[in-house]
What we know:
By secondary structure, this protein is mainly beta. It has one domain. Helix content is 10%, strand content 43%. The chain has helices at residues 62-72, 78-84; strands at residues 12-22, 24-25, 28-29, 34-41, 50-57, 87-96, 98-101, 107-110, 114-117, 119-120, 130-132, 141-146, 152-153, 156-157, 162-165, 167-169, 180-182. The strands form five sheets. A six-stranded mixed β-sheet has the order 6-5-4-1-17-16, with helices on one face. A hairpin with a 2-residue loop joins strand 13 and strand 14. The longest helix has 11 residues, at 62-72. The chain is globular. It starts with 11 loop residues before the first strand and ends with a strand.
Amino acid sequence: MDGLPTGPDGECRGLNVFHIASGKMDDTDLSGVDFAFANWFPTHLSAGGWKVGAVVDDGASDAQVSALGSILRGEAGGPFGDFAALYGEWLGLERANVTFSDGETPSASVAGRVLVTFESLPGPDGGVTTVKNAMYGFAPEFKIGKGPGHPDLFGLEFDGVYGETSDFSFASEMAEGAPKGRG
Length: 183
């Protein structure tokens, strides 16, 4: 689905927070690294002109930050390689404290000034609502719900409304050792 965003002025502002459970890029181990990916979509996703930036946990090594920068800018292929063609402006890569907490109510904190949580949307049977086979999803299936919080990174400030969470595998090529994580 490539409808107009439903945010103010027909825009979409978002924050995705990832935890890499295990994986590597070339010889750089990315296991345990948390990072946040901020985005602004001015109109339909496929129209491009996106503004994006990332914050990598300050506990990551220089090599890990460099590898993630390459991945997020699309240089390593994979989903971010596809997305990079839609970037209008790369807002940068910063280092700050990023934490991700999994569990009953997943939450994330970025730079001590952004706290977001995930509250699942109950389905008719009382379980969580899921989406499968989405056009712009990191995982083949993910849970949807509310994502309250007030992110303000790279000048992209908004009140969080929608949220999603899933486990997924990422690879520029489906190779052994691809980073696995939760976003």
